[in-house]
Amino acid sequence: MKLLFLCCFLIFACLSQAKKYVYKEDEYKASLKAWQDLKSKAYTFVMVDAGEFRTGRTTIKVRNGQVVSRKYVQTKTYHLPHEVVESWSETTPQTIGSHEGGYPVSTFDEVYADCIENILTQKYKDDPWENPENPRYFGDLKVDENGLLSLCAFYHDYGIWGNVINVESIRYC
C-alpha cells in the first residue's frame, strides 16, 4: 500500500510540474497590431543571424509592400576588428533574391507570418524522447520599445533549437 501511495504521489508531483507548450498568442497579436498601426509605405529592417564565430546582418528595404533592396554583411566575431568575410547587395528587381545567404527576401508582414506559422506554433516532432504531457520545447517572443517583433525563437529546455528570427532594428524612410 505504501508503494502504491508513493507511486501515485510521484506521478502527481511530476504532472503538476509539467510545463505546458505556450506560444504567447496574446503577445504575438499585440505585437502584430502594433506593427499594423505603425507601418508605413517605406521602411528598412535589419535581421541578424549569429553563429559561434560569425555574425551576419541582412538589411531589407521595402517600398509600397515590395522589397526593393537586400544587403548582407557577414563578419568574423572571434577577433577585433571584425573582419568582413562575405558581403553583397541586391538592388535591382533582377538581382533581388539571387544570393543564397542572409535572411530571405521578405517584407516585415512576411516576417510576422513566418514567426507564427513556422516558429511559435511549432512542436518538435522528431524527438523520440518528447513527452506530450511534459513538453520540453517552447516558443518565445520578444518585442522592442514600440511593441514590434524583435525576437521569435523555438527553444529546447537547454537552449535554442530550430528557427530564430532576430530583428536588430526597423526604421521608417
Architecture overview:
The protein has 173 residues and is of the alpha+beta class. It has one domain. The protein contains 3 helices and 7 strands. Strands 4-3-2-1-7-6-5 form a 7-stranded antiparallel sheet. Strand 2 (54-63) and strand 3 (66-76) form a beta hairpin.
**DSSP helix count?**
3
| Overall body shape | globular
Number of domains: 1
Helicity level, as a percent range?
10-25%
Give me some keywords for this one.
7-stranded antiparallel β-sheet; disordered N terminus; 38% strand; 3 helices; alpha+beta; globular; 173 residues
Topology:
Layout: H1 2-16, H2 25-38, E1 42-50, E2 54-63, E3 66-76, E4 84-90, H3 108-120, E5 137-143, E6 149-156, E7 159-172
Antiparallel strand pairs: 1-2, 1-7, 2-3, 3-4, 5-6, 6-7
Please give a quick description of this structure.
The chain is α+β, with helices and mostly antiparallel strands and 173 residues long. The chain has helices at residues 2-16, 25-38, 108-120; strands at 42-50, 54-63, 66-76, 84-90, 137-143, 149-156, 159-172.
